[in-house]
């Protein structure tokens, strides 16, 4: 039971990492991106900006993307943790999504969010060059002064994950292209040379 608690705490903390003493920011290739995944310089109207390497393959690498307006998306490439590396992709995705939702509650308890509501969640698999890539999505609204809608898309690619996070003001959520960006960046990450 203590081992399970330690794994849960480690997983929650990895979701909360926004800056780390071991992370390094750059605009070049990183050491800890899983093999076979490439972050394209451009995906549709989104241009890749700063890259953050979190120091280990399990914490991975984060890529900032922006189309030049107030929309921002962060793409994470990271190895599956050893506790889910051999699990079926759908099982690993559900576990990651559950950990993410637990992190939301931790953030609310810490005062980062005044409140939040899960708006939708469920499978979000995509086909890339005839290959099915299992995925999962969570959308939630949160209040921090004003109300925002945030998106969490997660895809299992071999023994790695590609996670896409994006947040928009509530007034813009229906018109956002973050969902199509998430699907496009995963397809490009897998197929880009």
Written account of the structure:
This protein starts with a helix and ends with a helix. The chain is globular, with a radius of gyration of 16 Å. It has 193 residues and is of the alpha+beta class. Strands 1, 2, 3, 4, 5, 6, 9, 10 and 11 form a nine-stranded antiparallel beta sheet that branches. A two-stranded antiparallel ribbon has the order 7-8. The model is unreliable at 1-27 (pLDDT under 50). The chain has three helices and eleven strands, in the order αβββββαββββββα.
Brief summary:
The chain has helices spanning 2-16, 89-110, 178-191; strands at 24-26, 42-43, 46-53, 61-66, 72-79, 115-123, 126-128, 131-133, 135-144, 146-157, 160-169. The chain has 193 residues and is an alpha+beta fold. It is globular, with a radius of gyration of 16 Å.
Rg, rounded, reads: 16 Å
- Average per-residue pLDDT, rounded, comes to 84
Order of helices and strands: HEEEEEHEEEEEEH
Share of residues in strands: 35-45%
Fraction of residues in helix: 25-40%
Q: Which stretches are low in confidence, meaning pLDDT under 50 for 5 or more residues running?
A: 1-27
Principal-axes shape call: globular
The major pleated sheet works out as:
9 strands, antiparallel
Count the beta strands. 11
> What separation lies between the terminal Cα atoms?
44 Å
């Amino acid at each position: 039971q203590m081992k399970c608690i330690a794994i849960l705490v480690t997983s929650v903390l990895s979701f909360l990492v926004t800056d780390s003493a071991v992370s390094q920011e750059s605009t070049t290739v990183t050491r800890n991106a899983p093999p076979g995944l490439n972050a394209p310089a451009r995906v549709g109207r989104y241009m890749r900006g700063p890259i953050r390497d979190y120091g280990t393959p399990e914490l991975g690498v984060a890529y900032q993307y922006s189309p030049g307006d107030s929309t921002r998306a962060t793409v994470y490439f990271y190895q599956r943790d050893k506790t889910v590396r051999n699990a079926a992709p759908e099982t690993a995705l559900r576990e990651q999504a559950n950990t993410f939702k637990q992190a939301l509650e931790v953030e609310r308890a810490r005062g980062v969010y005044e409140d939040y509501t899960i708006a939708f969640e469920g499978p979000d698999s995509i086909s890339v060059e005839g290959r099915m890539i299992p995925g999962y999505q969570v959308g939630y609204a949160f209040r921090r002064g004003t109300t925002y809608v945030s998106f969490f898309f997660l895809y299992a690619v071999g023994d790695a994950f590609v996670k896409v996070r994006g947040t928009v003001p509530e007034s813009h959520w229906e018109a956002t292209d973050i969902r199509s960006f998430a699907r496009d960046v995963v397809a490009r990450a897998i197929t880009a040379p």
